[in-house]
Amino acid sequence: MLQHTAPGNPCPELQYERVAGGGARPCLVFLHEGLGCIEMWGDFPQQLCAATGCPGLIYDRAGYGRSASLEHPRSIHYMHEAALAELTHVLEALIPGQDYILVGHSDGGSIALIHAAERPPQLKGVITEAAHVFVEAITLEGIRRADAAYEAGKLQGLARFHGDKTPIIFKAWSDTWLSPWFAYWNLEYLLPSIHCPLFVIQGRDDQYGTLAQVDTIVGKVAGPAEAAIVDGCAHSPHKENPPRLLSLMGAFILSLGDRHHRRSIRDLRS
User: Fold this and answer.
1) 85 DSSP assignment
2) Fold (CATH) for 2-268
3) What is the sign, positive or negative, of the torsion defined by CA atoms of 163, 169, 173, 174?
4) Which of 129, 29, 42, 45 is CA-nearest to residue 82?
5) For 19-59, what is each residue's pLDDT tens digit?
6) Which residue blocks in 179-223 are alpha helix, DSSP H?
7) Which of 103, 154, 177, 186 has a CA 20 to 30 Å removed from the CA of 111?
8) Measuring CA to CA, which residue among 109, 141, 116 is closest to residue 36?
9) Domain coordinates in residue numbering, the chain
10) Beta strands in the chain (DSSP E)
């Protein structure tokens, strides 16, 4: 059952919601995409928690959804700030001392990798969906198309989720990625520090990244890792084929206790 925040919120600057689950299971912590929020996950978090028996935690990062607005311009380290300061604060305030598994989409996946590189003892696994660890031409082209659509008034639906923060958060996303200095952003150096089990998911037709992202992540982390390349999906497989993603993610989560978890790359077809 989904529980909304109440008076006495230990994270008053951030909006969050909980999903009930088994007390002995790790908490699934959902990290949304670069233009996402709690609402834009739909009911996927609840379904994944129900399938695995895990409790869940979903929150709007600063500037998104119903959380407070951004307080300063973004730098090349904005995902590091989200991973090492904001996410750490959320975990300490809301699930202190509890085991958890990160489920990150796009920017959220990259944030999950940065966080995992710190090797927090309660982190039991990471699932990334359409994560980036370096900048590609296809990524920038996709963002340019989205930016043109926004300027043409074709993305007005975002205001339903972000309200009057929409222009700020959209431009924070597009302007940062399209800035010349962001071309040098790269997370490959931290991948060998990741030791926890990792599951890397990407749609075969992802308009924001190639399968080189998947190969790099799985090939450079130090811990057990596997990947699923899902046919018939683009940048958001959990929206495009929810049953398949629930099956893939659920199986990984339930397998985390298996000492024989294998390192492999698999092409999984819908």
Assistant:
1) I
2) Rossmann fold (3.40.50)
3) positive
4) 29
5) 999 878 999 999 999 999 999 999 999 999 999 999 999 99
6) 212-220
7) 154
8) 109
9) 2-268
10) 2-4, 16-19, 27-31, 56-59, 100-105, 123-129, 198-203, 225-230, 264-268
